[in-house]
Amino acid sequence: MDRADFLRLMLGGAAMAALPRMAAAGPEYDFRFTRLMYESGDWDVDARMPSNVITALIDYTSLRVDPKEHVIALSDPKMRLAPFCYLAGHKLVQFSPAERRNFEAYLRSGGFIFVDDCNHDIDGLFAKSFEAQMASIFGPKALGKIPNSHPLYSSFFRFSEPPTTSFELNGWGDDIVHDYLKGISFDGRLGLLYSNKDYGCEWDYDWRNKRFLAEDNTKFAVNIVMYALNA
User: Fold this and answer.
1) Which one, of 36, 37, 35, 41, lies nearest residue 126 by Cα?
2) pTM score, two decimals?
3) CB atoms within 10 A of CB 221
4) Residues 174-231: pLDDT tens digits?
């Protein structure tokens, strides 16, 4: 029995949509963390966040995880092979034609992108410009609130709502503790996950310091990745 047959047996047909991207992670890995570089704004934020997420996946799951972060230009068609993509920043998001084309094609073909607003607000430049881009590409009503009953919140660990970040509690940004995440679904599957909660900064610390936390705050990252691979 080869690996594809094993995954069909263990995961079922719904998860098989993720196989092309899982295979693209490399024959020795099931998952790689891919950060999207875009021409506008500041894409290279939260430098320690990927290693922390990678460590959590190694600690809690049986996935074969690539230990390195991979950075690829959104304008590069090769980004469509990634099993999971991360895009974040504080500033303007204004996609070039090639970036827009790949962003749309990747999501419509079953890809998954986690987008995080590092300003953790709804009125900042990143939020306004990114949401305008989504309305332009997918329509004004495509981006909507994700109910707390969504499978995302039970894909590995169980959450009753999106975890709050310390940045929200400190009153930075728009002074709102957001009790929701947003997203865009394609054929019933969440493809774009969008956060104004600034998870990237919340998880931007040396993974070795996690032992000082009362509760591991990267557990929700595990849920995001496991949903992306298996939904």
Assistant:
1) 41
2) 0.85
3) 28
4) 777 888 999 999 999 999 999 999 999 999 998 888 888 888 999 999 999 999 999 8
Beta strands 189-195 and 181-186, pairing class: antiparallel
pLDDT tens readout for residues 10-63: 333 333 333 344 445 666 899 999 999 999 989 999 999 999 999 999 999 999
- Both structure tokens of 216: 């591991």
Q: d(Cα 53, Cα 177) in Å, to the nearest integer?
A: 23
- What structural domains does the chain harbor? 3-230 (3.40.50.12140)
